[in-house]
Protein: Glutathione synthetase
Organism: Mastacembelus armatus
Amino acid sequence: MFIVYIPHVYIRGGYNKWNSVVTYLPFTLFPSPVPKAALLQALAVQTHFNTLVDKISQDPDFLGEALDRTIQADDFTAKLFGIYKTVQQEGRTQSIVMGLIRSDYMVDQREDGTPSLRQIEINTIAAGGFGVSDQLPVVHRHMLKSVGLLEESKRIQDQSRTREMTAALAKAWELYGQQRQQLCLFLSRNIPVIRRKFDDVSRKGSLDGDKRLFIDGVEVAVVYYRYGYMPDNYTEQSWDARLLMERSLAVKCPDISTHLAGTKKIQQVLAKPGVLEKFFPEQPEVMEQIRATFAGLYTLDMGPEGDQTVAKALTSPEKFVLKPQREGGGNNYFGEDIVQVLQAVKGDKRRAAYILMDRIQPRTEQNILLRKDLPLKLTSVCCEIGVLGAYVRHGGEMVLNEVTGHILRTKSIKNNDAGIIGGVTVFDNPLII
C-alpha cells in the first residue's frame, strides 16, 4: 500500500519549460510585527474549525441546502457537487476521513485603533505553506541578531510543524492497513509515496470488486490532493479520475464532501444567525470562539436579502470584497470591479456564484520584500496569518485533532489580492508584539 500525491505543477510565465530554473522562494528580509493576542486567538480556535469542517462534511442535507443556488450558477461547484451526489447515492465506502486544512486571517484595524482578528477563508484542499517555510525562522533570527536585536530574535517562533502534518497522513495510512486486516508495521519513514497526475490515474487507475484503488497495479491507501481546486485543473479525463478516486476505498485528503465544506458559500452561510448552533448545540463557548473571527458576510442569492446586498455593494464598493467560488488567489474583485461584475449579473441567478464580504482594513507595517527581479526597497505591507490544522476521524471517533503550526504571508498594501504562486505574496514570520 502507498500514498498517492496529486501534485500541483507550476511553471512561471516567461520561462522555457525545458530549462532548469532554480530560485529562492520569495520572503521578507525581516519578520513583521503581529499582535500576540491575535496569533493566540487564531491558534486557539483551529481545532474547533477542524471539527466544524468535519461535521459539515457529514451533513448532506446542510451541504445540499447551502449550495443549492450556487450549483445553479457556478459550473465548477456543480461538477464537484455532482461527484458528491454520485458517491452519496452509491454509498460511502470509507469510514476513515482526514483533513489538512488552513484557516487564513488578517488583523482588522478598527477606527478606535484596536486590532480585531478576522477570518479571510478556510482552505480544505491543497492547503499549502507547511514545510516550505520551516527554515524561515532561522533566517529571521539571524537577521535580527545581525543588526543587534537579540531580544527580538527570541520572539521568533517556529512555524509549521511538518512532522505533525505528515503524522496525520501516516495515521490514515495506518488505519487503512488495519481496516484491510493486514499486518501493518508502522514506520513513517518507510511509507512509500508516489506522485501522479489526474491523467495518470485516468489511464492506469482501477477499482477492484471491493472498490480498492489500484494505480500501476499497486493498492493505494491514501490520496492527497495538491491539485484540483481550480476549473482549469480539469479535463474530462481528470473529472473521471476524480470520480474514480472518490468512489474508492482509499482515504482521500480531502474527500469530496470536505472539499465542498471549504467553499466560499459555506463560509457565508456559517455566519448566519443560528447556523453554528446546528453543529455545536451544547457548546456555546466553541460557537463564541468561532463566531468572534467572522467578518461580515452576505448572500447574493436571488431574493430580497440578495437584492439588499447588491444595493449596498453598488453604493459603497470600497467597503467590500466580491468573492467567487474559487481558490488559489487572484480571483476576488475590489472597488469599481465589483460594480462592473454586479451590474452584469445583478438581475439573474448568476450572482449566486458569488458572496460579498466586508473589506478588512489591515494593520500596515514596513518591510523589505525579497523577490526575484524586484528591487530592494522599504515597502508598506500587510500580513495574513494562516493556521494549519490536521484531523483524522475513524467512524464516529476523532482519533487526531491538532493545530500543526502557522505561517505568515505578506504583501504590499498596493496589492488587493494575495497568492505566493501569483507573485504577489511572500513568506514571512510573525514578530510577536
Notes: Confidence is low (pLDDT under 50) at residues 9-18, 181-188. Residues 2-10+24-295+360-432 form one domain. The first helix runs from residue 36 to 44. The radius of gyration is 22 Å.
